[in-house]
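Quick entry between incubations.
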Amino acid sequence: MSQKRHILPGFRTSLGWTVTWLSLIVLIPLAALIGKTASGGWLHFWQTVTDPQVVASYRVSFGISLIAALLNGIFGFLAAWIFARYEFRGRLLLEAATDLPFALPTAVAGIALTALYSPNEWFGKLLLPFGIRIAFTPIGVLIAMTFIGFPFVVRTLQPVISELSADLEEAAACLGASRWQTLRRVVLPPLLPALLTGVIMAYGRAVGEYGSIVFISGNIPYKTEITPLMIFSKLEQYDYTGAAAIGFVMLAASLLIVLLGNSLQSWGNRFRKSS
Amino acid sequence: MASFIDFRNPPGSDRRADDWIRANSEPIWVRRVLIGILLLFFILFLGMPLLVIFQGALAMGVQTFLTTFTDDNILHSVQITLLVALIAVPSNAAFGVAAAWAVTRYRFTGRALLLALIDLPLWVSPVIGGLIYVLIYGRRGYLGPWLQEHDIRIIFALPGVIMATTFVTFPFVARSLIPLMQAQGCEEEEAALTLGASGFQILRRITLPKIRWGFFYGVILCNARAMGEFGAVSVVSAKVSGMTNTMPLEIERLYNDYLFASAFAVASALSMLALITLVLKSIAEWANERQLVAGQKVLLEATINTTQIHPAA
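Done. Structure below.
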């Protein structure tokens, strides 16, 4: 902390304000979460987080989100590729619409998706004759999770695709590679870190998501209940330490996901600089 | 339907140019099929939910739609939503400017940790954003007994809703300012300092005009999230209509009471907010890019001029 580097005034004021606000809103409350978890004791913690109903909710929140994140990887790649490479009428509109899942309140998305996929409405009615039910089944949860995670892959991948220079692809074509070979061997490898980062971000969002899922899932115990919902049921029983324990597990999981995403991103940045 | 314009292959170009295009792009039929798939995905996956909301809102006629917004409870939820945003957004905006200033203008130990902590609310479940305040201010929370003794209600009351909203919208302004201010650098600020400007003058006259589009962008997103937040506020709100229900919570209540037309009417109002947000966001992105490019051009010219004057440098 050499004095020389702080040329501009306001270091103390700005940092002081930042740290104070951060402590009041984020750090102290999170410390309370950890404190409450610890105050329940190890046994209570273990019993709470390994309760069969809670474990079933992990399968939904962590398992179905994974499928949703992979689906987002596929459709996100397609969208990012098209936005970066193709020019067509309405492209700007589609690009702006990509962020709709970010902008639309989750409760609104939740009731809209439920209305779309309920057995007696819109898509639900169309699919019912084939014996496919979406709302109030794990497929409904999958659809909601895919909906809210969609923008992440597009947003992380599109700038990287735009940065790719056409030279390499032309060189590959000159050397006799087919377009498919070029895509697989030349284009895809440098995009992989950004693609994985986007997928992991979508995964992290889907794991913690609540509002858009609770309506369409129907909250059937052991089947479509998500982990954040378990926190609600513990709080309703005034089991604060139990709620804190489940919150702690979710916090730790989110932390792991973010760390994974960040290390992938720095790997990708190194990749971009070296190429 | 021939609406696909290839900027690398303008109409009227000869066949040889067309052959060259194939080397770094897909054949035209592949492109059309891919765009078709994407269009279908957007319509079914993003368009239909929006359509369903507006259809549901107007299903019982315009009259019902309008009377929804004369209901006392719903009007009250609109007021609560506006009030919460009016407190949470400016406080997080002020925080965002301070944090971005501290993080981009100085190097200090713990800077990387600070950056990570600012991002944290984006990564945890919004339900945790409500839970943590219940654990402190709730009846069995750390401060619960003391608050009860003094008859102060925070959880299941307005302060709790405001705190939970502030938590989930915490990083938005800071996050949109930090990369921008990093890219802009602080040469102008330092120049102002040498000319005798005070810190506050620099902030008001130099920095704020420089970052205005990025700031606007962050505030827009922060506001959309603040007005639409559901998970965090449902933990701390009593969910009693006419008390601390925000619009998203009111949607849930109406929906669970099978008042679908009203639920979708309130939802359509929030959807309009989302659409306006998307438009403003696109404008801000475009303006920000233009400002940044213009700034870099000025900087580039300045560099060229300096190197011409002092070739050795």
